[in-house]
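Supplementary material to the annual report.
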Amino acid sequence: MTYTIGQAARMFGLPVSTLRYYDREGLLPGMERRSGARVFGEKEIEALRVIECLKASGLEIREIRQFMAWTVEGPSTYPQRLALFQARRKALEEELGQLRRMLDMLKYKCWYYETACADGSEERVGAMAPDRFPPEIQALYDSAHSVG
Amino acid sequence: MTYTIGQAARMFGLPVSTLRYYDREGLLPGMERRSGARVFGEKEIEALRVIECLKASGLEIREIRQFMAWTVEGPSTYPQRLALFQARRKALEEELGQLRRMLDMLKYKCWYYETACADGSEERVGAMAPDRFPPEIQALYDSAHSVG
DNA sequence: GCTTGACCTGAAGTCAGGTTCATGGTCTAT
DNA sequence: ATAGACCATGAACCTGACTTCAGGTCAAGC
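Predicted assembly:
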């Protein structure tokens, strides 16, 4: 199965211009063309999935280009590619930990403003010591206000 | 307890220039000064924690400024603030779901390249049908290759 | 009273990651 | 054979979020 750039763009929820930009930047090496038009095959679709997750892990375009260059270079670069995925996995796991703490903060703030709305004032909830919060809220508060 | 801009910057792992930029952009309204120098009190530290998590949820600086304007405006904006936190909570939960799928892809790729390294070639692992993967890898693969 | 280090300002500069524009080619259906 | 919906290009442009710079203030320690 192959796709046009428009179909691939819809599959990934990206503008066509972004896919062309990725190609220009060397993120889709060796793509086939039919009368000038790019042909997205299974290889390119998998490349887009990889781009998606490498980007999500915080990698920059130029580093993704480096990875794609390694895939072109062949088996001698397996160790680099493995090391890259291991490093990005670690980075993303740490990022997820941070984001869970951010989410706890948002949940705490939801409770805070629900309470303030109900009271018509922040006075009571703002003056309340954290150890008087409901237990599940206290856990959110602690997570959101813990060190680093 | 109060802090200088340098101390606050260290607390949040941010450059001093970023805190000044936030102040300039209206993200730290009504901050006290002592002979010209900004004084970061509990209010500002909590504001920085809120900025941190609103940013993490995908909010732009100008939208965070809007929120800070609401906190200055008083109790009449509790409903807007609550709605904002609820919306950002939802957005971040969805983002976390996406990132977990990205992490599954990274884990799958780690396994893929571990196997390729061990084999000295991608041939075997690349030709293997997903239903022949080890069960835990199959779960990662399915998660990473499921519809958006 | 002078040096040092940390603070201040407004204006300009930087960078990544796209996006837009002007112009033109190619297919498919009517 | 013409319209409409795709596709293409290079170059210029844009945006958000900082960062840097030049020049100045202030408090503390020697």
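The interface with chain B takes residues 11-13, 49-50, 52-53, 56-57, 75, 78-79, 81-82, 85-86, 88-89, 92-93, 95-96, 98-100, 102-103, 105-107, 109-110, 113-114, 116-117, 120-122, 144-145, 148 of chain A (CB under 8 Å).
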